[in-house]
Write a structure and sequence with these properties.
heterodimer; A: 333 residues; alpha/beta; Rossmann fold; 2 domains; 8-stranded mixed β-sheet; 12 helices; 12 strands; 34% helix; globular; B: 308 residues; mainly alpha; MetI-like fold; 77% helix
Chain lengths: 333, 308
């Protein structure tokens, strides 16, 4: 866990709602996290837990309406991205904070060559000439290990394999040497071997640049491989925040525990894989109190009363579970 | 690229044979005697009739007539109509009329269609969008014939804004009213297509990527959304342009524009198989050519279907 780097992006109490014909739906509720230079922060959660929505809201690419930021701040080096004008934000998002998305085939413009798409970053943010921008784009493709980069820059997205396309996405995101890279499930659509290559590449480029990486994923394996710290989200809430090692070895929240328990491992060979009973709640009908309560093996009556606050159980460890946080406090006394 | 074009042209030949043969057969099967139609109620001397019949090979079997017509067309020896007009001269006079009408109508249709479609696509559920939906339903429900006669009566006869018919006022005055009506009848469908295509494209992931790159809205629109949203519209363009000739038959007859459509109408009325087949061949050739051009254009716009 790198606690030394400068805090680059600090999200505080972010709440996002969607307006639907049947009333507003809260997709992200009071989420806070931060990422430092050189740190990899994983945001872990199932689909619908609000992990992508939170980053899309703070970068301003969330469709608004129907989306709506109800409260919260997202400070990049002290400047609040949410409060600033679109024009000001565009100078930061796309330049200092960049993003990589899951499905690289649909995330790249199908009718533009990849070189042109990367060069666009230099043209818009650095004002480079077309020729220089294309040259830099080819260099960038080379940096993400695309063979014959200068030639391939003229190719179109559909002419690349999935892994190569994700490298193109990375080249585009890293073209301007950003401070923070937000990678939204960057390896989900890829084969396991290619997945590892991409993650390694991100780690390598991160080390070179001392960049903060926010890695959104639903894959615990990915988290344990590359993340320094992890934020676990459930139904729009942060339920646990810890260093990766601590979260994986001694999960505090029962949800994290359940996720870990349902990971296949050699020890469980031949046995049925344990699962968390039930399904994640619909955002329209989040249970009262703790949203995880109906699926929780240790839930008690009090869990239904209030949304459990995110409490610090140990230095650098927060969890939102009244059963565990009170327990831990008792233990600490 | 050259090979691709050649392949397309060669593939068009059998289709051309089937189309011309079919058209000729249909004209041949029409009831009535062409020369008697031409003469009206006047009696024709038997010798004249026989000479005319021989000149136009009317007593030969169907397939011989067809082959003779095709030979004339392919050798550029178009001959004369039953009434004695030189067909080559007729074509020289009439092709520009139809081209002017079709192109002007397309200018109107595309201007209205693209403007409204793009606007409605970006301002979804705004009042322009809603009125466009209504206008589409109304326009699609109005038969072309009704619209042409109504426009001719209201704007030509009553208000006198446009000439009622004919081409005496030259281009573009004489062509404005029919072109506007064609354009208005056709623009709504095009606008809907453009709108739907934009609505689908603005939600695409690559548009999100473009925004995440910190691009301005104008750049996102012109560089990322429109080039992709235009693709289905280009396909529509080909079909639409090709269908214009069919529409010209009605429009030119109603507005008395001496173009190919009117020529076709007269030829069908007189059962002049040679002329009908000649005009059908022309329409067919332009159809093939326009489709080829559209396919090539599509290849330029969309690298995924590029032909090597």
């Amino acid at each position: 866990m790198t606690a030394t780097g400068e805090v680059l992006l600090k999200v505080d109490n972010l709440t996002v709602e969607f307006d639907t014909p049947r009333g507003p739906v809260r997709a992200v509720d009071g989420v806070s996290w931060q990422v430092r230079a050189g740190e990899t922060l994983a945001i872990l959660g199932e689909s619908g837990s609000g992990k992508s929505v939170s980053t899309q809201a703070l970068t301003g690419i969330l469709e608004m309406p129907p989306g709506r930021i109800v409260s919260g701040t997202a400070e990049y080096r002290g400047a609040d991205l949410i409060a600033m004008t679109t024009k000001e934000r565009r100078k930061i998002v796309g330049d200092r904070i960049t993003m990589v998305f899951q499905d690289s085939l649909s995330a790249l413009n199908p009718v533009q060559s990849v070189g042109t798409q990367i060069a666009e970053c230099y043209r818009v943010h650095r004002g480079l000439s077309k020729k220089d921008a294309l040259k830099r784009a080819a260099e960038m493709l080379d940096q993400v290990r695309i063979p014959a980069a200068a030639k391939r820059a003229r190719d179109y997205p559909h002419e690349f394999s999935g892994g190569m396309r994700q490298r193109v996405m990375l080249a585009m995101a890293l073209a301007l040497d950003p401070d923070v890279l937000i990678a939204d499930e960057p390896t989900t659509a890829l084969d396991v071997t290619v997945q590892a290559q991409i993650l390694e590449l991100i780690a390598e480029l991160q080390a070179e640049r001392d960049m903060g990486v926010v890695l959104i994923t639903h894959d615990l394996g990915v988290v344990s491989d590359v993340a320094d710290n992890v934020v676990v989200m459930y139904a729009g809430h942060v339920v646990e925040r810890a260093s990766t090692a601590a979260a994986l070895d001694h999960p505090v929240h029962p949800y994290t525990e359940g996720l870990l328990g349902s990971m296949p491992s050699a020890d469980l060979k031949g046995q049925e894989l344990p699962t968390i009973p039930g399904t994640p709640p619909s955002l329209r009908s989040i249970p009262s109190g703790c949203a995880f309560r109906p699926r929780c093996p240790i839930a008690i009556e009090e869990c239904a009363h209030d949304v459990p606050p995110l409490l610090t159980v140990a230095p650098g460890r927060d969890a939102a579970c009244i059963r565990r946080t009170t327990l831990a406090e008792k233990e600490a006394v | 690229m050259i090979r691709y074009i050649l392949r397309r042209v060669v593939a068009a030949i059998p289709i051309g044979v089937i189309v011309t043969l079919g058209v000729y057969a249909l004209v041949f099967a029409m009831p009535g005697d062409p020369l008697r139609e031409l003469a009206g109620d006047k009696p024709i001397p038997a010798a004249v009739l026989a000479a005319k019949r021989a000149q136009f090979h009317l007593d030969d079997p169907f397939i011989v007539q067809y082959l003779l017509s095709m030979k004339d067309i392919l050798t550029g020896n178009f001959g004369t109509t039953f009434a004695g007009a030189d067909i080559a001269d007729q074509l020289r006079l009439r092709i520009p009329v139809t081209l002017k009408l079709t192109l002007l109508a397309n200018v109107f249709q595309w201007t209205f269609g693209l403007l409204f479609g793009i606007y409605a696509g970006f301002k979804r559920n705004g009042w322009i969008d809603r009125s466009l939906l209504l206008a589409t339903l109304v326009l699609l429900a109005v038969p072309g014939l009704v619209a042409f006669f109504a426009a001719q009566f209201v704007f030509g006869v009553q208000l006198k804004w446009f000439p009622v018919s004919g081409v005496l006022d030259g281009f573009p005055t004489s062509y404005l009213l029919p072109s506007l009506v064609i354009g208005l009848l056709g623009f709504a469908g095009l606008a809907r297509l453009m709108r739907t295509s934009i609505v689908e494209t603005v939600n695409a992931d690559f548009v999100k990527t473009a925004r995440a790159k910190g691009l301005g809205e104008q750049r996102v629109l012109w560089r990322h959304i429109l080039p992709n949203a235009m693709l289905p519209v280009v396909t529509f363009l080909g079909l639409d342009l090709a269908g214009m000739f069919g529409g010209a038959i009605i429009t030119e007859s109603i507005f008395n524009l001496p173009g190919l459509g009117q020529f076709m109408f007269q030829a069908i009325k007189l059962k002049e198989g040679g002329v009908v087949v000649l005009l059908s061949t022309l329409a067919f050739l332009s159809f093939i050519l326009i489709n080829l051009l559209v396919d090539l254009l599509y290849g330029i716009l969309d690298p995924r279907v590029r032909h090597v």
